[in-house]
Every structure is written in structure tokens, then in C-alpha cells.
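Propose amino acids for all 141 sites.
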């Protein structure tokens, strides 16, 4: 019988999978396989490798394996975790080298482009100007 930590992680993976499927993505889950990605997400012209973490902490070995697998598959590596009641999506952009190294990542959002397609966008943290949108987006990946 799996322990409660495993069950919580598996339940979180299934919730993220259902959310992505409800947005129209094809999602494959890799339960208990110890592969670099928990979810493989396919869109019309892209692929994401998603690692689901309940608390947002990804050990160096898993972090680096995710980036390496994404590079081999020409996919975008993503880590998703829950912060209070919302999901936070982050895109790791370089390997972790040291034991106490901070997680090198960029916060991303999933939104819609002008054609109504779901896209992944990077956040840029800066003060919002009066009358401007709170979420400032740099580019579509």
C-alpha cells in the first residue's frame, strides 16, 4: 500500500492532468516510473515535460534530468506546484550545479493568444503602471 506522501503526489498529478486535458491538450501521465517528467503534454506544435511538486522544491538530480530530457525531446521543461489555492508554473532555464544552489527558473503563465490557442508565456516582474494589466508578459515560447 503506497504511503500518504505518494498518494498526495499522485492525486496532485491527476488534478494537473485533468486541468490540462480540460484545456484541450493531450496529456500522458507517467505514474510511479521515476522518469524525469510526471506528465507529457502535447499541443499542435509543441511538447512540455511537466514535473509536479506539491511544495515546489525539486531536488537537483530530478531538476537536471528534466532539463536534459526536455532538450533531447525539443520540449519545454515545466515544474508545477501549489501555492495556497493556485497553481504556480515555472520553467527551469539552467542546470543546478551546487548543493545549496537556488532554483534557476522563470515563472510562466498559460494563457490564450490572438487565435484562441493556449500558449505558455514568461512573466516579467515589474511594477504595474496605472491602467496597465497586472500580468506583464514577455514572449510566447
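Proposal:
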Amino acid at each position: 500500500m503506497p504511503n500518504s506522501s505518494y498518494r498526495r503526489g499522485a492525486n496532485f498529478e491527476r488534478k494537473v492532468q485533468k486541468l490540462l486535458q480540460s484545456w484541450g491538450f493531450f496529456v500522458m501521465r507517467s505514474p510511479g516510473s521515476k522518469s524525469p517528467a510526471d506528465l507529457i503534454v502535447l499541443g499542435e506544435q509543441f511538447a512540455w515535460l511537466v514535473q509536479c511538486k506539491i511544495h515546489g522544491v525539486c531536488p537537483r538530480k530530478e531538476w537536471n534530468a528534466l532539463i536534459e530530457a526536455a532538450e533531447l525531446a525539443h520540449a519545454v521543461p515545466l515544474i508545477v506546484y501549489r501555492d495556497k489555492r493556485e497553481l504556480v508554473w515555472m520553467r527551469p532555464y539552467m542546470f543546478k550545479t551546487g548543493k545549496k544552489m537556488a532554483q534557476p527558473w522563470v515563472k510562466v503563465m498559460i494563457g490564450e493568444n490572438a487565435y484562441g490557442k493556449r500558449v505558455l508565456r514568461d512573466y516579467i516582474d515589474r511594477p504595474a503602471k496605472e491602467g496597465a494589466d497586472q500580468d506583464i508578459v514577455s514572449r510566447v515560447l
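The helical segments are 4-22, 60-73. The chain has a mean pLDDT of 76.
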